[in-house]
Amino acid sequence: MRRKIQMILGCAACAGALLAAPFSDAQQKQASVAQASISYDLSRETVLQGTVVSFTPSSQVPPLGSHVMIQTASGLVDVHLGNPTVLKRNDMILAAGDSVRIAGEDQRYGSGSFFAARVLEKGSQSVTLRNSRGIPVSSKRTVTALNSRLRQGGAQ
Questions:
Q1: pTM of the predicted model, to two decimals?
Q2: Quick one: 80 and 113 in the same domain?
């Protein structure tokens, strides 16, 4: 009889552990969702103008991706550019001393913030890094009708 009670209690403990497992990391998932819920608003967008101090093509500092340090009239700003292949596929090369203009918005991330670049301009070059809702664009090169005609032998 005692053995039967021990077996029943053991099964109940195992069943309880199995039922509680899905709830064990619910708080962790909630925190990561809060971090990832970045709301981009075009009405809050600002434009930074300054000089490139340094460029990191693939930073390990969150948010991951390309970062550029810009010296502006207001001071040094760390700008998140997103996927490094977007810059590469659009032939955008950044080096110290380059003059740039960046449209974007300050975003909260975890306990800090970062400047999320939407459009990066350097000279006559311009690359869209995020859409109007702040979602990073695909790393595929955008071929416009004009670019397509130029590749086929000139504008018509």
A1: 0.64
A2: yes
